Amino acid sequence: MYKDKNIILVIFLVLVSFDLFLWSQILFFKNEPKVYFLDVGQGDSSLVYLDNILFLVDAGPDKKVLQSLSRVFPKKVNYIDLAFISHPQLDHFGGFLDLLNKYDFGAFIINGREADDKTREIYNKLISKLEERKIPVITLSANDKIKYKNNLIEIISPDKNWIQSAELNDTSLVFRAKNPNFSILFTGDSGNNLLNYLSEKFDLKSNILKTPHHGSKYSFSEKFLKAVSPNLALIGVGVKNSYNQPSKEFINGLNNLNIPFFRTDLAGNIVISFKNNNFFVKTEK
């Protein structure tokens, strides 16, 4: 497992040079930025395409991610450059065990926090599987960056203090991916205490927001939503889930700030494409 922060740029450039020819041949993506917010039930998973680079953020709890990806990918695509695990909870990493049976990955990015007792065994199984496949596992934290061409992935949290939090959700990787045309903010399951803190310390403004913790009331922060000021919010949530997510508090907060949103329990896969500084949304239920 890599912990040297200087190695990430080297590995990333090697990955790019390895598969650049492959992606340049796939007309499916047409070299335009795209975000695929995947319907994985009660969990999160997002696929982002930027300048011949594919990265997957979380993979939901189980093999449902395979079905969602199959509706997005042409059959000949079986390689993803980077995978991010926001934090070691099953509804964010469980699906990677199934994905590894079908897809190759260039590297995995994690926050470095151990899983709790409930999911430690299966999380360690995933890490062991990555090591057996010789897929680099890289720990990143606040202020780390991945840059390629005009694209930047900047890690905003956790820092050395938040990674120690007793609340595992607040150790989530919070990061923004951006290029000159758009930006998207990923928030894992961050709670409102962390979100308020980040709102005071950082520029969070982004076109698209992956809403924290499936729209939980414990992750609702008006200050945070105002700081991000997104054009669109995306909520990953299961149909009639036992958590009653997304919460009334979160939905009302989005409505009060006139932030349009889509949710996977109602819309299924959500596909966002970008062209000429505009974005277009298509749903695939």
For the largest sheet, list the strands in their spatial order: 6-5-4-3-2-1-14-15
How much beta, percentage-wise?
Answer: 25-35%
Named CATH architecture:
4-Layer Sandwich
Element order: H for helix, E for strand: HEEEHEHHEHEEEEEHEHEHEHEE
CATH class: Alpha Beta
User: Are there runs of 5+ residues with pLDDT below 50, and where?
Assistant: 17-27
Question: What is the count of DSSP helices, taking H or I runs of 4+ residues?
Answer: 9
- Helix fraction, binned, reads 25-40%
pLDDT averaged over residues? 89
CATH topology (level 3) name = Metallo-beta-lactamase, Chain A
Computed structural class: alpha/beta
Summarize the main sheet.
8 strands, mixed
Shape: globular
**What is the multimeric organization of the chains shown?**
single chain
Q: Could you give the count of β-strands?
A: 15
Q: How far apart, in Å, are the first and last alpha carbons? A: 38 Å
Rg over CA atoms, rounded to whole Å, is: 17 Å
| Structural domain count | 1
Question: CATH homologous superfamily, by name?
Answer: Ribonuclease Z/Hydroxyacylglutathione hydrolase-like
